[in-house]
Design brief:
- The protein contains 14 helices and 17 strands.
- It has 365 residues and is an alpha/beta fold.
- The strands form 4 sheets. Strands 9-10-8-7-6-5-4-1-11 form a 9-stranded mixed sheet, with helices on both faces.
- Helix 1 packs parallel to helix 2.
């Protein structure tokens, strides 16, 4: 048991599958959403522990904003009843711009949602069409403006980079237009062609930037966002001061989180486990069926790897018995501009984040 707890609620519904997405999702229907919500509520009651303080709740998906405000409110109320939900808990809802309007946003604020993560992806209509998004730029902008008007002061937008045919100019246009909106956080992801998706084809792969060009776009985006006041705090995440995602940071700090819903993952009470990617099985089971993926998580390698994903990096005093081995390997990384150190802490540069898997593997394993 590691202090406070975060809850992740996986909402598997989508209105339409995006061309690049391999996350678990199914088509939304009114009856399926009712059955799903009932299953979430009984699972929260099953795991409930009045001694555990919940300080972050994250509704991810899929498209969680396809649920009604009443359904989301009932889940938050059950969390409050089954755990100790902090008064200032960060409660995030992922949302598609097309599912938001002024009335729903006001309802979400009233039931306790205080952070939105809006799946914008691009501020260019042609790119949005290519990605299979159902909104256009005008709708995305209006969703953000409506959210701010409804009282949301913690709004995040997704930005995708290394898109087919993307240029420095088009990426700059999207980033500048997005950061001109009343948002406090940007999650910037490099597009990957996942097996089995619509983008898993020669036509798309032939239009993607190569590794060197992708690296250039990533570094250009990092510089631009930081000039706009969005400082990088994790490989793919940038925030104005004080608006870092508290829930996502607990993943990188090996803090406890409990996942509920089909395809949800957990690091809870000394084990990592995952729920089957099957909505019907989740709905029909009294308690979600899980598979243990690691019965001894957060050992040295994993702890160091996750900490090095954060800009604040790895504190050597937290891995004292490995200090000398790490310091022996560090000089070439510093010389090549992949990492920096003050003698007690090691962190990766933006260039190092680009090669994070290789750099961390060299340094830690």
């Amino acid at each position: 048991m590691c202090g406070n707890l975060g809850l992740y609620i996986h909402v598997p519904f989508c209105g339409r599958k995006c061309a690049y997405c391999d996350f678990y999702s199914v088509n939304w229907s009114k009856s399926a959403a009712v059955d799903y919500t009932a299953a979430v509520l009984r699972n929260i009651r099953h795991y409930g522990d009045a001694s555990r303080i919940v300080d972050t709740v994250y509704f991810g998906g899929g498209t969680p904003s396809l649920l009604t405000s009443q359904q989301i409110g009932s889940i938050i109320a059950e969390i409050r009843s089954s755990f100790q939900l902090e008064d200032d808990a960060e409660i995030t809802l992922e949302a598609n711009p097309c599912t938001l309007n002024g009335e729903k946003l006001a309802e979400l604020r009233n039931i306790g949602v205080n952070r939105l993560s809006i799946g914008v992806q691009s501020m260019i209509d042609e790119e949005l069409k290519l990605l299979g998004r159902v909104h256009d730029v005008k709708r995305a902008e209006q969703a953000v403006l409506d959210a701010a008007k409804a009282g949301f002061e913690n709004i995040s937008c997704d930005l995708m980079i290394a898109l087919p045919d993307q240029t420095s100019e088009s990426l700059r246009f999207s980033a500048e237009r997005m950061t001109s909106l009343p948002v406090q956080h940007i999650s910037a992801y490099i597009l990957k062609t996942e097996e089995g998706t619509a983008f898993d084809c020669d036509d798309i792969r032939g239009r993607l930037p190569d590794d060197d060009r992708t690296a250039e776009l990533y570094l250009e985006m990092t510089e631009l966002l930081e000039k706009q006041g969005f400082m990088q705090y994790e490989v793919s995440n940038f925030a104005k001061k004080g608006f870092e995602s508290r829930h996502n940071c607990r993943y990188w700090k090996c803090e406890d989180y409990l996942g509920i819903g089909p395809a949800a993952h957990s690091c809870y009470e000394g084990k990592r486990f995952a729920v089957e990617r099957d909505l019907a099985a989740f709905v029909s089971s009294k308690v979600q069926q899980v598979t243990v993926t690691d019965d001894s998580p957060c050992g040295f390698e994993e702890f160091a790897m996750l900490r090095l994903r954060l800009k604040e990096g790895l504190l050597l005093s937290d891995v004292e018995e490995h200090r000398n081995d790490i310091l022996k390997k560090l000089p070439p990384l510093v010389k090549e501009g992949y990492a920096e150190t003050d003698g007690e802490r090691i962190w990766l540069t933006a260039k190092g984040f680009l090669m994070s898997n290789s750099v961390i593997e060299y340094l830690v394993f």
